[in-house]
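Fold sample X.
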Amino acid sequence: MPSKIPFRIFVAILFLLGVGSIAQRHFSGEIPWLPGETYSTWMIEAKVEFTAQGDAVNASFATPSTQTNFTVLSQTAASPGYGLSFIDDRAQWTIRNAQGKQDLYYKVNVLTNDIPLNVVYEQDVKIDKTTWLPPYDIAAEQLVSSAMEKSADAFSYSRELLKLLSGDDLGQNAKLMLQQNSKSDLFVALLNEANIPALLVKGLYLEDGRRQQQLQPFVLVFGEDDTSLIDVKLGKKADAHNLLLWEQNGEPTLDLIGGTNSRVSFSIIQQTQPVMQVLKEKADSTNFSNFSIYSLPLEEQALFKGILLIPLGVMIVVLMRIIIGLRTSGTFMPVLIAMAFVQTSLVTGLVGFTLIVAIGLVIRSYLSRLNLLLVSRISVVIITVIAIICLFSVLSYKIGLTEGLKITFFPMIILSWTIERMSILWEEEGAKEVFVQGGGSLFVAVIVYLTISNEVLRYWAFNFLGLQLIIMSIILMLGTYTGYRLLELRRFKDMQGD
């Protein structure tokens, strides 16, 4: 007798792979355990205003990219009469001729991630030292020397330098330098003067309902092993909570040709979106596919929503036949009937199935007297089933029972074979066996229908494909069961003691 150890190891591997896949989809794919949950998203609208001078206009506007704490889901722009293209994290509007006040709009929808902001800058940041003219060269040198004496590394130097450039009690050197330079530009220049790579970026703190907001300057300070984000306005390390870095390449937010008096403002609204919609947008806009059904077209997604429920029904049929001992007409006929019930509703499906099979059996009993070949006989049964369905649909519509129209969802070929099998069973085993197997089929079909109609199970089947591996492992283990079925125990009822 062959050992069952390899088989059990295989089943265990299948089960563990299924569990691991589900865990990976939840923790890495961010798919929640239960349906109906929502994600917090932010809708940000940027309004670009400027005055066109009557010539061609080229407006290049920085757009945010996905970062650790936010995922960009979608972006749109409204620009009547303008050509629009998205190139390298920038939106570019162009028009041949424009005159007067112009308003351009850019909208982006971002998803909040439960991960802190982690700035990872892969490009080499060049140190660009500024050539200062007197007396600014002496002031810059003294500021650098003062901060260098009180620091030990790049980050402590930046901290001491910020102290010299911030506060109400500024020294003469800081006042002189700030007269000719903005605080953020001066901070970057003095970092470079100390051979410390730094990059000026711009970000936006997201607060619900805020209007007319401006981008705030931040400076990335690159040490030997780490990167620090400095809030130049507050003069300290930036609070990364709800901070969206809008421009991360040190480029201007708006690069405008053909216009003057430009201004950019931002409006922010926090909203909640159903998890399904967010996941679809993530599959469309990021490399989130990860074997996700959401990466498929909608038509195929709708198809798989039904197909992925079949293994659940199959497992129930296996339980009912092997463990309970119910007899059904056909091995997996109840699953197909239950799938039809999903389309028709339970009551309509039960009534329709019973009537079609009953009438079909009457007609099939007449055909059996004609001694037809199997192919001809089953073909006539198929045509008869189609005619019965058409007749019921028309009658139900005429009398106002629109539910009866759903009877067309029944699989006609399957119904025909069901009628054929039951007719043969009637001739060989008698009417009792027909009712036993027919009733068993309907009972199991109802159980399968109630199972696959459960919202949580439907959600899991569609979003956690590892569930299919778990179901397969359970079916394989059930296939090794050789004990008594529960319905067989009634045969030993008389052997029980008083």
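Fold sample Y, listed below.
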Amino acid sequence: MTVIASSGVVIVLFFSSEHIIKKENNFTRRFLQHPIFDDKVYKLGVNSYYFAGIANGKIYLGNPTTPLFITEIDTGLQALGRTKISLDNIDHPFRNVQLKVKYPHYYLYDGNIPIIYRGKLGDSIAQTISYGDAFFNQLTVLDSMKFALRTQKRADKQYTIALLDLMKNPKTELKPTILEKQIDGVFDVDGLLATEPETGKVVYTYYYRNQYIVMDSHLRVANRFNTIDTTKTANIAVKKLSDGSTKMNAPSFSVNKGFNLYKDFIFNRSNLKGKHEPSSSWKTSSIIDVYRTDEQRYIGSFYIRNKKGKAMSSMITDGRYLYVLVGNELQRYRIREGAFK
């Protein structure tokens, strides 16, 4: 009987969350007038690439199926090249090797070990610069020896932001007040961490609530800004396990799905439909909301259409063009001058 009741609760929560996603929410978007235009497409051949960085006229791609390769393509989408990376030490049980590029270096890392390698762009040899300093599940590069991490506190396993400075002792400094717990300190604070390479700003966007946190390069909180939807509290159900950890007790819905930073702008991929938005557009497009990171200001929104039934997986911009990965294609959109001012 208990099993049946529990199953019933899960089913109800699932359909409730689906209803919340599909229903018309209590906010209204301002859609920008033709902010981007289809421009060019490059066929990558596979659909497993992700953006590792953009700098000096080149886009850098990583691929979890070939983690020791850097793939680069010029921003004109003319020529693609690959560089195989040789690590100074490969005697590790790698589980999730990731690539990030911050000119003039690239970084390979696996927070499960934990280890960080660094190499110079154009050089195929990467050296270990951090080993065993801090476990982490997200990393973003601040400078060549400094990183912002998302990690878990040893005492309660809750997520926290940390600063890893390889020139200091101790190297790791937890920043426990940045992420604000509402329910369990894990799922309710889940989100994405990124750095804007030109300004040095660090941004964390929550998945399950309408807030993004703007920090400086020392991880001092400058502002906590809200997106236009009204989800102030994470709408999730969690269960505490016997070892003290938690798990999601029912399917949930996300408010935000991903974002990209460019100077003082954040391009946020929303997962909620606003008032008066046609269901047909919602089913065939991704919605991008544009905000400022230096003040509480919503600029407007636009659609990125699905390609051959596939939705975009990630995006990156150099200010002139917006680049989007959709299926096995790299799509370039031209940004209309003044579109986001």
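Sample Y note: The longest helix spans residues 2-22.
Also: The CA atoms of residues 153 and 175 lie 10 Å apart.
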